[in-house]
Every structure is written in C-alpha cells, then in structure tokens.
C-alpha cells in the first residue's frame, strides 16, 4: 500500500536541495537507460564506480536509480508496441532504508518529519502532513503493524510529495469455502456471483455498471476535444488530474462494495481473469474503441486485490486458457455457442441468461473444478426462481 504525504511549507534551502538532487537523479536514470542492460549485477559491475564519480548523490540513491532503470526497461519491453521508443519524461526519486528516516515529534507545525540523505554531505529534514486516512496508516506503521519499505519523492506542479510504500503479511484461509467470481467487462464494469463449496447453485448475483465512470470519461473527452479545437493545450493538461481523481474515487466505491459483498459469505476467495493483452485484439467502431480503452479494468482489479487482502480475503487470477469461452458456454448444460446482444441464449437447453453473469458462473465453476469441489457430480442449473438471473429493467446496481 502507498500512503501519500505532502511536504509542508519547506524553506527555500530545502527546496533547492531537493531540486538539485532530483536533476542529478533524473540524469543518472537516463544515463543508466543508455546502456540498455536489464541485469542488475552487470550494470552495477560496469557502471557503479563511474556513476559515483559523475553524479553527486548518495550511494543508496545511485543504487535505487539503477534498480528503477532496470524496472523501466523490463516494463517497456513487456508492453512494447511496434516502432515505439522509450522516452523518460518524468520520474520520482526512490529512497530505501539506508537513506531515509521518518520520525514523530512534538513539533507544532506537524508531528511527522522525514529525513533524507541526498549526497555524502547533504541531508534535509522535511515536515510532512497527511490526510486523516493516510495518518491512520502511518500511525499503524509507527506501532509496527506495517513495514515501511521505500519512500518515493514526487514533484508535482512545483510542490513535493512523499509516497510511503508500506507492506505487511496477512493471513488468508488455507481452504476457502466460497468462490466469488468477478467478470470484468465494458457493458457491466464488474459482475459478481458466489458459489459455495457445499452448494453448487449460484448465489446473489450483483452488477456494477460503472455508469458514473463512463459519464466522467465521456464528459472529459468532449471537453478535451473542444479545448483542442481552440488550441488550449495547457487547459487540457490541467483537466487530466481532476478526471483521474474523479474516476479513482468511483473505483474505490465499487471496490469497497465488492469487498462487502464477498464478506457476506464464509471463507471467500475472489477469482478474476488475468486481463493482460485485453486491449490488443479489441477493434470495433471508433466510439466503442474510445469507451472501451478508457475504462480502467486493471486499476479496478488492483484496488479489489489490496482491499480484499486487508480483510484477509485471498485473490486468485485465472489465465486466458483457464477462462476460454466462459461467456460462450452455457453454465447449465455446458454447450458452447455464439452469442449476440446482452442475453445468452442456449440453443440446446433453451436457457436465457445475462451473458456477463453467465460468464461469472462459468469462472466460479472452473475454479471449483480445479480444486476438486464436486468434480464428480453432474452440472446443476441455477435456480430460476431465486437465482442470479438478470431481471428485466434492472437498475444500475441490481441485486437479488
């Protein structure tokens, strides 16, 4: 988990020291990237001594820059598109345990002070302020409930922010009793259904449309288009931060609701599909492409995962091979067919179901099969009277 604090009214000398260190760190990162080396030991062996001579930074910062450069190269190679070139536009300074110290004092300005080692001869002590939720996590960390691993210093709009990366070990049930399968998609942002180890019938299907996120994305796309026609590029850039914050707020709301849903069942495990490469093969109309690519599928999964782990709920991801044809397979009889529209109609058994909910049930049952739950028993259909079938004219968050 990352907790963000703001450097509160630093004096001019501290700001200048941070800016100097940032320029040197940015230059060091670009210097490391020129070698195009993804081996930490090779890069350290060939470049470490030269980096100490050329860049006025602490040895810990030189090593974190090396690690960050390797992470950037690996990420770029993994997600690389044809003819793309790695360009470093902005970054953060990473401080590990050797070059930072967070302490709590009785200072009137703020009780939290962060000491950073920038070079062999230069240190700065910075006052940090937190919001209420962030302060709660920092207090937990000071009590030993969390481990502080690294601090990332980020400069944004001329102000400095400290990103504290926390981690802790959580216990999850060794043998879950309920599978909560979540299908992520464009029409319904998330669809969840639960199946118990002792009962193969789907329980309490739940839809999250994500309509507010789509409205925000559509609104800001329209505003950017109008500003682009007027050549107001600076205004377009300013809009990005506000749009991102509004979308993140909605994602947190949906993720919290999904966790509350999962907590209703005994010893749940949340199962989702690994969405790597989901955007590569999606090519529809211009309007649908824009809407699909603007939806933050992976961001939602990340929020669900960390919020679930905080509550002691395990999260599993299924590969594409394991989730193949989940939306095309009838969960009642297992027949695979092509589908049109939002309703899955099975030509073999005649079942009609919402396609996303049908996919969620199939995901849950494949997990059950993989762990040996009722693997020898015949497939049973959902209860049409009280199951998870989508009713007509359902609201934005139907549940039954």
What is the SS-derived class?
alpha+beta
**Cα distance spanning the termini:** 33 Å
By DSSP, the count of extended strands is 14
Helices and strands, in N-to-C order? EHHHEEEEHEEEEEHHEHHEEEH
The proportion of strand residues reads 15-25%
Q: What would the principal axes of the Cα set say about the shape?
A: globular
Please tell me how large the radius of gyration is: 25 Å
- Order the strands across the largest sheet as they lie in space: 2-6-7-1-5-4-3
Bin the helical content: 25-40%
Number of alpha- plus pi-helical segments:
9
Low-pLDDT runs = 375-400
Summarize the main sheet. 7 strands, antiparallel
Mean pLDDT: 83
Structure characterization notes:
The structure is a single chain. The protein has 400 residues and is α+β, with helices and mostly antiparallel strands. The chain contains nine helices and 14 strands. The chain has a seven-stranded antiparallel sheet with strand order 2-6-7-1-5-4-3. A five-stranded mixed sheet has the order 10-9-8-11-12, with helices on both faces. Helix 1 crosses helix 3, helix 2 packs across helix 3 and helix 5 runs antiparallel to helix 6. The longest helix is centred in the middle third of the chain and has 31 residues.
Concise synopsis of the structure shown:
The chain has nine helices and 14 strands. The protein has 400 residues and is an alpha+beta fold. The strands form three sheets. Strands 2-6-7-1-5-4-3 form a seven-stranded antiparallel β-sheet. The protein has a five-stranded mixed β-sheet with strand order 10-9-8-11-12, with helices on both faces. The chain has a two-stranded antiparallel sheet with strand order 13-14.
């Amino acid at each position: 988990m990352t907790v963000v604090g703001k450097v509160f009214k630093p004096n001019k000398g501290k700001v200048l020291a941070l800016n100097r260190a940032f320029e040197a760190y940015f230059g060091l990162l670009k210097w490391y990237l020129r070698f195009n080396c993804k081996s930490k030991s090779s890069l350290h062996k060939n470049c470490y001594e030269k980096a100490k001579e050329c860049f006025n930074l602490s040895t810990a910062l030189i090593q974190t820059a090396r690690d960050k450069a390797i992470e950037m190269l690996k990420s770029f190679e993994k997600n690389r598109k044809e003819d793309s070139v790695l360009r470093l536009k902005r970054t953060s300074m990473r401080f590990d345990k050797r070059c930072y110290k967070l302490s709590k004092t009785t200072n009137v300005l703020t009780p939290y002070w962060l000491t950073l080692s920038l070079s062999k001869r230069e240190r700065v002590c910075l006052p940090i302020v937190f919001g209420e939720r962030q302060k709660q996590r920092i207090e937990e960390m000071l009590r030993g409930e969390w481990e502080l691993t690294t601090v990332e210093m980020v400069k944004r709009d001329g102000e400095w922010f400290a990103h504290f990366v926390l981690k802790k070990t959580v216990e999850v049930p060794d043998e879950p009793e309920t599978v909560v399968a979540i299908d992520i998609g464009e029409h319904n942002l998330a669809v969840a259904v639960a199946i118990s180890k002792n009962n193969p019938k789907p329980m309490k299907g739940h839809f999250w449309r994500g309509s507010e996120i789509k409205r925000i994305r559509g609104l800001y796309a329209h505003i950017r288009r109008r500003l682009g026609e007027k050549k107001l590029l600076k205004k377009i850039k300013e809009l990005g931060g506000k749009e991102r914050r509004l979308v993140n707020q909605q994602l947190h709301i949906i993720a919290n609701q999904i966790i509350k849903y999962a907590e209703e069942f005994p010893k749940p495990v949340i199962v989702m599909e690994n969405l790597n490469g989901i955007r590569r093969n999606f090519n529809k109309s211009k309007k649908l492409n824009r809407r699909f690519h603007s939806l933050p599928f992976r961001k939602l999964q990340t929020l669900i995962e960390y919020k679930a782990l905080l509550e002691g709920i395990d999260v599993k991801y299924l590969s594409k091979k394991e989730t193949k044809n989940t939306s095309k397979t009838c969960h009642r009889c297992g027949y695979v067919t092509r589908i049109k529209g939002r309703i899955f109609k099975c030509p073999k058994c005649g079942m009609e179901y919402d396609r996303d909910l049908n996919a969620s049930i199939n995901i849950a049952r494949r997990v059950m099969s993989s762990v040996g739950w009722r693997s020898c028993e015949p497939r049973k259909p959902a209860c049409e009277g009280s199951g998870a079938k989508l009713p007509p004219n359902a609201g934005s968050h139907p549940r039954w």
